[in-house]
Amino acid sequence: MKKLLLAAAVAASFVGSLAYAEDAKPDNEVSFNIGAVSDYRYRGISQTRLDPALQGGADYTHNPTGFYAGTWLSTIKWTKDAGGSGNVEWDIYAGKRGEIVKDISYDVGVLSYVYPSNGLSNVPGFANANTTEIYGQVGYGPIYAKYSHSVTNLFGFVNSKNSGYLDIGANVEFTPGYTLNLHAGHQTVKNNTAYAYTDWKVGVTTEYAGVTFSAAAVATQADSALYVTPQGKFTGKTSIVLSALKSF
Asked: Using an 8 Å Cβ cutoff, are 199 and 182 in contact?
């Protein structure tokens, strides 16, 4: 809040109160989002056979405590490609965020990925696709480090409980209205070490007419013989991914 030099102390107090009222957030906030991507990449791996996806979600935040909860959905194709069924990913999550000390932020929570009627538990060599992870993140300014740990089997991998994903990145505004997005991550798959890989991303985000647009180069070191669709598409290939997102 900007301090104003005023002749009278009463006037200063009054103006200060008005500024606080303008800046303060409501105790309870609800927001919605809807968007589209040219390829739904999650941890560098395409969930849509390198094809576009429609996405949307809703979030609730209790600002006084930092507690939040939300849900998000996307069209997918990977469960069918693995021999199961279903064409939707439905995420449900909740957590708490805030500051540890000044300028050091934290975010902890739980996230469940639900794949309705995925049927992968009936496919030889696969487990149910539904996955739950707990996560923790620490941030300093635009820089963050996050670790996610699976408390169930991971995305259909058999006997893969206790897999982990480390995500390090930064989102830096390099010129007014444009943000540079940097990310590097490493996925481990418990008892399925051949499926471990590293991924990275370099992108730019901007907003125009109330819509957030982004373009990013995405790549992985995933094994192209393992992360491949029945149509022969390598789902971890280096690509440019475009997206548009509207929040309201």
From this structure: no
Q: pLDDT class for 247, splitting at 50, 70, 90?
A: very high
| pLDDT tens-digit readout, 34-69 | 999 999 999 999 999 999 999 999 999 999 999 999
114 DSSP β-pair partners: 90
Radius of gyration from C-alpha coordinates of the chain: 21
Could you tell me if 226 and 234 are in contact, meaning their C-beta atoms sit under 8 angstroms apart? no
Cα–chain center distance at 78:
18
Phi and psi, residue 210, nearest 5°: 80, 5
H helix intervals, the chain:
9-23, 78-81
Which SS3 state, helix, strand or coil, does residue 33 take? strand
23 pLDDT band, cuts 50/70/90, is low
d(CA 165, CA 170): 17
Q: Mean of the pLDDT values across residues 193-209? A: 98
Q: What is the dihedral of CA 180, 36, 58, 117, to 10 degrees?
A: -130
If you write DSSP's letter for every residue of 35-86 in order, what string do you get?
Answer: EEESS-EETTEESSTT--EEEEEEEEEETTTTEEEEEEEEE--HHHHTT---
